[in-house]
Amino acid sequence: MKFTIQRDQLMDSVQDVMKAISSRTTIPILTGMKIEATTEGVKLTGSDSDISIESFIPREDDGIVYVENIEPGSIVLQAKYFPDIVRKLPQQTVEIEVDDHLNVSIRSGSAEFHLNGQDAEEYPHLPQLSTEQSFEVPIDLLKDLIRQTVFAVSTSETRPILTGVNMKVEDENLSFVATDSHRLASRDIPLKEQAQNLSFNNVVIPGKSLTELNKILGDSQESIVISVTENQILFRTKNLYFLSRLLDGNYPETSRLIPDQTKTLVTIDTKELLQSIDRAALLAKENRNSVVKLTTKENNQIEITSNSPEIGKVVEEVHAEVVEGEDLKISFSAKYMMDSLKIMDTDKVHIQFTGAMRPFLIRPNEDEQILQLILPVRTY
Amino acid sequence: MKFTIQRDQLMDSVQDVMKAISSRTTIPILTGMKIEATTEGVKLTGSDSDISIESFIPREDDGIVYVENIEPGSIVLQAKYFPDIVRKLPQQTVEIEVDDHLNVSIRSGSAEFHLNGQDAEEYPHLPQLSTEQSFEVPIDLLKDLIRQTVFAVSTSETRPILTGVNMKVEDENLSFVATDSHRLASRDIPLKEQAQNLSFNNVVIPGKSLTELNKILGDSQESIVISVTENQILFRTKNLYFLSRLLDGNYPETSRLIPDQTKTLVTIDTKELLQSIDRAALLAKENRNSVVKLTTKENNQIEITSNSPEIGKVVEEVHAEVVEGEDLKISFSAKYMMDSLKIMDTDKVHIQFTGAMRPFLIRPNEDEQILQLILPVRTY
C-alpha cells in the first residue's frame, strides 16, 4: 500500500474515526485504526464493537486532489500514536507506505516515522446492513434532535434501556425521547413524503453513540441517511459511515407521563430564568442535589430561592411576561431545569405547572416540537 | 461594613487572592477570604501560610470610582462560594453589607445572596516585613526571570531545597537559578544603581510561589518592589502584596557544573529543533523517559532520532546554521530539551557540547543572560 495525502484532510478523518476507538476494548486489534487505500481514495475505520466509524477521503473532490500516487492495500496502525503523529507532521503533504513485512513508513518533509503495523485481514468486517427501513433528514436537524434530548438519558445502568434515546417514526413524524425517570426531553420533526410507509417505535440508540455522532457531524443542511435493522442503526453521509448497536429491551411508554392540564402557566425570558437558577444553584450544590424553589408572586414576579443552612441562602425575583392560574410554590433540581433551558432556542419559554407535586412541562413559546418534563422534588 | 463596588474589579482581585487559598489548610479560617473596607478602598486577603496575597481595590483611581458608600469594617467569607457568586452576579454594581451577627448580604440587580461570615478578628495577621534588603525590577522582566527558570525546579521532595529557585544579587546583578540535578536553568538581569550595597546568595523561593505570582502579574513595564528577610520574601506593587516563605537550607553551588570548554558547537533554528524533538518524542514516551538521540551529520545536518522497538522509530534531519568541532552522538531527555527551547525568545540558539557523557549548554544566540544546562542520558 502506498499513497500521498493532504495532512488536514487526513487529520479530520483520523479525529472522527478515533471517536469509536477505545484502548479498553477486549479485542486487541480494535485498539488500532484500519487504513485502506483503493483507486477511489483512502478509508479509515475504527470500532469498539458498540460503535463503528468509517471515514472516506476521496482521491479528488470538486476538482481538488486529496490523495495521489495510490497503490491499493490496507494495514492496521496503533491508534494510540497515529493522531499525534499526523497532527505534528511538518508539511501539508504526507506519504504513507507499507512494505511486505507490515512496516509502515510515514513521511512528511524531512521527518520519517516507521511504525509496526498489523495485518488488515485480522480486522473484523463491519456488518453490511440491508434494510428497507431508511429515511433522510438534514444533518443540522439531526444535530438538534440529538442536542435537545440526549442530555436527559440515564447515566445509571439500573435500567439500561433508559441510557438510550428512543427514536420513533409514525405518521411521517420523527421523534426522539429520552428520560432518566426524573425528567424527560423530547423533540419531533416532520419527515418528507419518502417516509410514508415507515413506522417503528422501539428503536433505542445508546446515548453515547448519539453524543459521538453529534461531535463528528458538522453543521450542514445536507442530508444524512438513517437505516434501521433489528439491532443496529446506520447513519450515512457522502464520506461517513457511522454504525451503532441498538439497546435491547422495551422502551417505556412515556406519553402518559405528560400532564394534560395546566393549573399555573408562566411565560418567561429563557436566559433570565436560566441565569437566576444558575445563581440560586451556587449555594445549593451540597444541599439535596441542587434543589431550588420557585414561587409565584404578585405583579408577574417569580421568586427563585435556595437555602443551605450552613452556607447561606439566595433570593432573586425575575419578571415574567405571563403568570396565570393558581399560586404556586414548587421545588426542583436546578440542574434539570438548566439542562432544559439551555437547549431552548427561543427567547421565551412557557412553563406549565399542575401543582407542586406533579411533573411540569417546559416548551418554547413558538414551537410545539420540543417538550421538556421535570418531576418536582418534595420539600417540607 | 458596607460598600458598593464594581464587579469586574472585585472579580480580578478575588481571582488573584484565591491563588493563595487552599481548601486543604489545617487552619480552618484560612479556607476563607478576608474582606476589609476602609475609607481608602477594599482589601482582600488570602493565605495558606506558605503564600499570603493581599489585593487592594482603591476607592477611586485616575478619576474612576471603583468603590462607593463605604462603611468601614471587615469580615471573613467562605472562599469556596464567593468567586462563583461574584462571577455570576447579574449587574456590574455589587453591594456588600455585613450586619452585627456576621451575616453577609451580597446584592446585585434583583439577586440577593445571604452568607454566613466569620469574625475577621480571628484571621491571622500577616507579618509586617521590615528590611533594608529591597530592590525594584520591572514587572515584565520579573515574569521573564520566573518563566525562564521555574520549570527546572525539582518536583521531588527528596532534596526540598531544589524545589525552589535560588535568587542571588551580586555586583548589581540579579540572577534566578533552578535545577533538579538533571538540568539547570538560569537567567540574569542587571539591577539599577539603587542596588549598589545589596548582596545575598542563599535566598530560595518555593517554585510554587513564583508560579502563582507569575499568574497574577500582568505584563507591565511598571516596577515591582522585592524585599527579602531571613525567612520571607515580599513582592509589592501599587495594589498587590504577595508574601512567600523562603525555603530553609543551603542551595548547592551550581557554577562549577557549567562546562568551560566546547568540543562541538551547533547553531540552529529554535523552532525547527523544538518541533523535530517534539515529533521524535512521540514514539519515545514509554521508552526510557522520552529519550531522543542527536547526531551530527555532514553538510551542517543534525539528525534527531528515537527508537522504541515495540512501537517504531522516528528519524528526522534538521539543517543547522553552524556545526563546528568534533562529531557527536548524544542522547538526552526530549522533555528537558523542549522545556529549554520553549523559553528561548530568540530565533536561533547555540548548543555547546563537551562530549556525549558531559552536560551541554543551550543559550540564545543574541543574549548572554539565559543559560540552560542538560545532562545527557547514557545509552549503549
Automatic annotation (TrEMBL), chains A, B:
Any single GO CC term annotated in Swiss-Prot or TrEMBL for this entry: DNA polymerase III complex
Subcellular location: Cytoplasm
Keyword Oxidoreductase: no
InterPro entries (alphabetical): DNA_clamp_sf, DNA_polIII_beta, DNA_polIII_beta_C, DNA_polIII_beta_cen, DNA_polIII_beta_N
Record has DNA-binding as a keyword: yes
Location of the DNA polymerase III beta sliding clamp central domain: 137-253
Keyword annotations from UniProtKB, A to Z: Cytoplasm, DNA replication, DNA-binding, DNA-directed DNA polymerase, Nucleotidyltransferase, Transferase
GO biological process entries: DNA strand elongation involved in DNA replication
Residue span, DNA polymerase III beta sliding clamp N-terminal domain: 1-127
Every DNA polymerase III beta sliding clamp C-terminal domain range: 256-378
UniProt cross-references to Pfam families, sorted A to Z: DNA_pol3_beta (PF00712), DNA_pol3_beta_2 (PF02767), DNA_pol3_beta_3 (PF02768)
CDD domains per record: beta_clamp
GO MF term (any one): DNA-directed DNA polymerase activity
Source taxon at top rank: Bacteria
UniProt main location, coarse: cytoplasm
Family: Belongs to the beta sliding clamp family.
Function as written in the Swiss-Prot or TrEMBL entry: Confers DNA tethering and processivity to DNA polymerases and other proteins. Acts as a clamp, forming a ring around DNA (a reaction catalyzed by the clamp-loading complex) which diffuses in an ATP-independent manner freely and bidirectionally along dsDNA. Initially characterized for its ability to contact the catalytic subunit of DNA polymerase III (Pol III), a complex, multichain enzyme responsible for most of the replicative synthesis in bacteria; Pol III exhibits 3'-5' exonuclease proofreading activity.
Quaternary structure and partners: Forms a ring-shaped head-to-tail homodimer around DNA.
Descriptive protein name: Beta sliding clamp
Species of the source: Pontibacillus marinus BH030004 = DSM 16465
Taxonomic lineage of the native organism: Bacteria, Bacillati, Bacillota, Bacilli, Bacillales
